[in-house]
Amino acid sequence: MTKIKDKGDFTLPGEAGYEDLTLELAEKWGADAIRDSDGTVLSDKIISADYDIYSTICLVRGDNEWARANTDKLQQNYLMSDPVIADGDKITIDLLSGFFREQFKVNGHDDPKTWWQVFDRTTGEQFPKDQWDFDRTTNTVTITNVKKWHKYTVNFLAYRIWEAISMYNHITNEWGDREHLMPVDPIYPEAQKFMLSYLQKWLDAHPKTKIVRFTSMFYNFAWFWGDPAHQRFRYADWGSYEMTVSPLAMTLFAKAKGYRMTSEDFVNNGAYCSSHNVPSGRLLEWMDFMHSFVVNFGRQCIDLIHRAGKVAYMFYDDHWVGTEPYSEQFKNMGFDGLIKCVFNAFEARLCAGVQGPVIKELRLHPYLFPTGLKGEPTFQPGGDPARDARKFWANIRRGLLREPVDRIGLGGYLHLVQNFPDFVETIEEITQEFRTLKQCHALGVPYTAPLKVALLTAWGKQRSWVYAGHFIHGMELYEVTEALAGLPVNVTFISFQDILKTGIPENIDVIINAGKAGTAWSGGEHWKNEKIIEKMTEWIAGGGGYIGVGEPSAVQHSSQYFQLAHVLGVDREIGLTLNNIKLTGIISGNKHFILKDMEKNIDFGKDIDNIFALDKSTTVLSQTNGSVQIALNRFGKGHTVYLSGFKFTPENTRLLHRSMFWAADRQKNFGPWTCSNVRTDCAFYPGTKQCVVVNSSDKAEKTQVFDENGHSIDVELKPHGIKIIDV
Amino acid sequence: MTKIKDKGDFTLPGEAGYEDLTLELAEKWGADAIRDSDGTVLSDKIISADYDIYSTICLVRGDNEWARANTDKLQQNYLMSDPVIADGDKITIDLLSGFFREQFKVNGHDDPKTWWQVFDRTTGEQFPKDQWDFDRTTNTVTITNVKKWHKYTVNFLAYRIWEAISMYNHITNEWGDREHLMPVDPIYPEAQKFMLSYLQKWLDAHPKTKIVRFTSMFYNFAWFWGDPAHQRFRYADWGSYEMTVSPLAMTLFAKAKGYRMTSEDFVNNGAYCSSHNVPSGRLLEWMDFMHSFVVNFGRQCIDLIHRAGKVAYMFYDDHWVGTEPYSEQFKNMGFDGLIKCVFNAFEARLCAGVQGPVIKELRLHPYLFPTGLKGEPTFQPGGDPARDARKFWANIRRGLLREPVDRIGLGGYLHLVQNFPDFVETIEEITQEFRTLKQCHALGVPYTAPLKVALLTAWGKQRSWVYAGHFIHGMELYEVTEALAGLPVNVTFISFQDILKTGIPENIDVIINAGKAGTAWSGGEHWKNEKIIEKMTEWIAGGGGYIGVGEPSAVQHSSQYFQLAHVLGVDREIGLTLNNIKLTGIISGNKHFILKDMEKNIDFGKDIDNIFALDKSTTVLSQTNGSVQIALNRFGKGHTVYLSGFKFTPENTRLLHRSMFWAADRQKNFGPWTCSNVRTDCAFYPGTKQCVVVNSSDKAEKTQVFDENGHSIDVELKPHGIKIIDV
Predict the structure, then answer these.
(1) What is d(CA B195, CA A8) in angstroms, rounded to the nearest whole number?
(2) Is residue B662 domain-shared with residue B680, that is, in the same domain?
(3) A236: in domain
(4) Are residue A565 and residue A641 in the same domain, yes or no?
(5) How far apart are CA B501 and CA A650, in angstroms?
(6) Do A240 and B609 touch (CB under 8 A)?
(7) N or C: which end of chain B has fewer CB within 10 A?
(8) Taking Cα atoms as reference points, which of B177, B166, B437 lies closest to residue B319?
(9) How many CB pairs below 8 Å do chains A and B form together?
(10) Nearest-Cα residue of chain B relative to residue A80
(11) In this predicted model, what pLDDT tens digit does every residue of A555-603 receive, in sequence order?
């Protein structure tokens, strides 16, 4: 094996005023690039050192002076006012009540009667436009002739007067009276013209910059803040398009598509366009329309960068909305690199899986911020950033065993590390581990079992490897995906539309459908489509494997709740057929193939309850509180597995791994390049003839690694340790 | 206080062949009446002793010879065949597959094309009548031109060839090759004529009988049995009307109401007409129609009995369907007595609460059968009938503190008690306790707090004090009702129809709505009715108390899941608005009035999960797994309490008791005639100036009883003990 290089592939956040620290850590961590961060600058001493310079730019909040002069061109979104119950025949609604008034300002500029809607939320019906009026002086809407005791809300447009990410950074880092940056909407031709000229000036002013890092393009993921006294975060969705809305965009959309979006298309009963909901056809068209706009205008910006002899990277987080890196169009933007901030394996796979010739870089956590995303202490008393870094890395590393990225790096304010020497050491170890893994991948892909699994959701490929944000623990698919991200199987993502259009791809062995009824993850209304039932049933009857988790195929329709109950052999009692007395589950006596490595009782965290077997032919492997937890069934030539929930744990990951092999009827092929100890993972790289073994637990572990011939190798690993074995 | 009589008010099951035992126990237990049971006869020696004779008769299974000669007049019901998935364009369904073929026989007599329906249960649509055919020789239906992979079922009529209760008794008591009795349907005029003549002959043949006990009238509650090898009980509902169906009744109904019922009105996607489901308007009309028939023909039978100088009692269990003792029409039947078999307090209240001049008698459990209702050993090795009797009695007694009945008794086969002397002693104690309680009630009603609570369901008064059967533990309303049955408050039952028609009665202080979304108990679709929301909201705003348990007012509609979320201050996250970030619950610091007597953590058995507070004004008293368990709110002048579940325990009963006082804003009035120890209950009878204190636990308990002036009396009680205090 070639000596692993001990430098490079690492981006360090520099900080003016801490030049020595910056250069010292750049050396220690083997950085080859130094970046600035939101709120920091790089001094000449740093810029002149021998590193690639990597500068962040955010066009939509780049020049607050222009924004102040063009407040009618700020970005907007629809909000649903907090509901008001009528106690007479007239009510007045304070539109921004309950919202963070430093983030939002009511848009009284575009005609409310054209763009807003008032709803009676008791009946769900729109209220007549001639029965309400907006008062510009008080930012209230008065509704007359209301029905007493009904609930009313107003869908209204609000400008955002504080750009969300900047607002978060400002408040988290206590920037005090620093100016609030405002987001400009590039949908306006004047704004586009300004942004391109601003970008050109910026390029001219940054001759040493090699990498221009967009933070990011134009529209942030949705993040509505509430009255901070009691509810700062009201609505947050990493994947949704609420913040792309404006009357101009809606007008352009209507010209392009032949129909108008309404405020309610975005407000959706106050659920907004959350990724958790099954997207409507209208919403998908809106997303497609805005995506095209972002790609086209983004391309103009990137062209300027390339003409300046620099490269363009995109931050696959803030303001990523509209770029859709998993789309066909994305390549047309011309990006040279993608940076994704990650906590775990599936987020690493999200970045690694983007197709195209781009450099992929992971931004590790914790950020060099005083507090973490949930407000917990990090670089401040009570925090343990080294422990956090090791824990996050151990998770991320599982994903990197399977698919590589090109670089890693940090973000934030470097001076914060000064009191945390343990963190400085940990990052040095992580950078070395990363370079080792990268080198393993360099000579070809690792061993992957000949088993292809597809995750079926209402989003499909468009939301590969990610859902609505970080840390949605308890959401079945989130947990399943994290388990899958580190397993040596092929993973793909399909939607119900894919199945309708082109059928189930021939090379898929197992389909997983996981989630709660009605969600985009389980599929909701799609399961009422008889064509879906036909195609899925036929595919399973022909030998396909189906794994249902939680409420797979669930929707209240006809005589079954799980629309694929006939293949799963189980259904859920939701209280309407309590008198249809259920089979007493007969637990299979022997330890089944899929349970072989389970050490303790089944623990899915939280189970969907009241699951019953349809028939004695269903094999029930586990029950809790009279409800089935694990059931197997056969339908035609196909095999199905039902799991009543899923929590990402080493044991459950193994259960899922084995379930896939059982569902694919390939039990005999299970084994090569797996570990005996479920808390360890391994990957074999035929190119280098090396096997990497990692310990994801914070305790020392012993494990056996099995090769293709069933021979085993004993390995001992430190807490969170890694070993490379020459095979 | 008058000396409590030590005889009377007790009905003993006698048994021929055990004359000495019968008369010995009649003396010991103070019986004044001796009865026969299904399968037993009373010998002359018993009949000639000085006891009232009490004979059971069941007209619909009275004469099997007539039934055999008139098999086209057996009772029928619709069944939904087990679903079959089409794997080609033609399928054949074996109609009775999965059903107990000794209970059912396909009715090929009435034209299947007129009375049956075939459904595609994948789409939920009826399949064309010309695409299927019934084969009388094989009892199968062949369906052609089916869609491959769709699910098909047939709604068909089946005769019942073994009467359900007789079948249960036969199998439970191992009657071997004794003839299977068949149920005749009195809807046929010929059957009515025969039954009246049969009854007259029977009356003539039973000169010593004083009390004619119908077991019961004509139609049993629904009880469909499955292939007994793996699923004996498929569907059982104590309150539903499936077994009243026949082509003739449907034809008469169509003439009376102007429209035809369909098979699917009864089959209802295989959920049948379960009491758990919100009844359709059509179903309610069917019930009303059959009720009128039962009342009218029943009256003819009772008239014969009265003319014979005897009295008529009805068993408020088997074959009670159609009698509806809580209806206005019931009095017209002319019954002299009602007998209800009971396990617990609310079933005792069900019997006690029937209006009219009838004698009310409780049939205690355990029955003198080898096994109990769930197949557990009773009068056989492994059983402990004395323990069971004490436990059931302690529960029943709570109900009898509040409302009296006239008599108690036993059923079954007396010889079984011979090996259980402890049981014999226990029954003697129970009979004495019963007579004591009856005497307390004799001089007037016990103290009841000036607080009236209404249980709001889709059934209302029609299903007062009872739901779909015994032992539906975990069903929130079942548990709540059992708690209420022993509390010194006024309880009533209202329906959504009542609210629409006449509004909320003025004297109601608190409304309780408890159950799972979509059920008749919670209310399901009724909560989409804006009039209901208006009336409930107005009533609460005006000062009404509302207690919601589980999923009160829940239905997926508009922007809220709990349609009364605005008054409750909480709603449930069902996975569609996960990104609407919820308030972190702020637990109220002090021990609130409603929690004062809680000794341990809240334990509702099973909580409805993902409950969040809408607003900081909601007072959260308890949370589990990040979900609200108990929340209080104020709306206008009204007070609301939310409980995420309910299990009948002494502590939870007290919590409910206090919650009602808080919801009614009468905290200050809580106290008179309550006990300090939640495992004890008391009732004060002003007429006798006595206070009865009971211990519902199986351990000795000390308690303090508080009188109207807040003075307390110390009381010590044996396990399951009772004390009478002269005040």
Answers:
(1) 98
(2) no
(3) no
(4) yes
(5) 59
(6) no
(7) N
(8) B166
(9) 192
(10) B559
(11) 999 999 999 999 999 999 998 877 777 776 667 667 899 999 998 889 9
Which chain B residues are within 8 Å of A557, Cβ to Cβ?
A: 124
- Asked if residue A219 is part of any domain, the answer here is no
Closest CA to A713 of A681, A685, A676, A688: A676
Residues of chain A with Cβ-Cβ distance to B580 below 8 Å are: 234-235, 270-272, 274
Question: Tokens 């207690």 correspond to what residue?
Answer: B547
In the listed set B620, B643, B669, which residue is the last one of a domain according to the structure?
Answer: B669
Residue among A185, A317, A318, A571 flagged as catalytic: A318
C-alpha angle A48/A53/A55, rounded to 5°?
125
Phi, psi of B158 (to 5 degrees): -125, 135
Q: DSSP 3-state assignment of A432? A: helix
The answer to whether residue B496 is domain-embedded is yes
Q: Calculate how close chain B gets to A138, using CA atoms only, in Å.
A: 23
Closest partner CB to A468 (pick from B475, B515, B578): B578
Q: Where does a domain end: B276, B299, B322?
A: B299
Domain contains A295: yes
Residue B447: name the closest of B695, B687, B703, B714 by CA.
Answer: B687
Chain A positions touching B533 (Cβ under 8 A) are 122, 149-150
CA distance A680 to A718: 11
Closest CA to A618 of A636, A635, A606, A599: A635
Task: Supply the range of the domain harboring residue B717.
Answer: 674-726
Query: What domain count does chain B have?
Result: 3
Flag if A518 and B636 touch (Cβ within 8 Å): no
Distance from the Cα of A430 to chain B's closest Cα (Å) equals 33
**Each residue's pLDDT tens digit, A194-249:** 999 999 999 999 999 999 999 889 999 999 999 876 678 889 999 999 999 999 99
Give the global pTM. 0.95
Read off the pLDDT of residues A459-488 as tens digits, 9 standing for 90 and up: 999 999 988 777 788 899 999 999 999 999
Write out the two tokens for B440.
């307390």
The neighbouring-strand residues paired with B277 are B519
Indicate if B135 belongs to the active site: no
**Which residue type does B172 have?**
T
How would you classify residue A255: left for phi > 0, otherwise alpha for psi between -120 and 50, otherwise beta? Answer: alpha
Query: Alpha-carbon distance B80 to B119, whole Å?
Result: 10
ipTM exceeds 0.90, yes or no = yes
Half-sphere exposure of B725 (CA within 13 A, CB side): 19
Q: Which of B36, B185, B317, B318 is catalytic?
A: B318
Of B233, B236, B558, the CB nearest to A121: B558
Closest Cβ opposite residue B530 in set A122, A475, A575:
A122
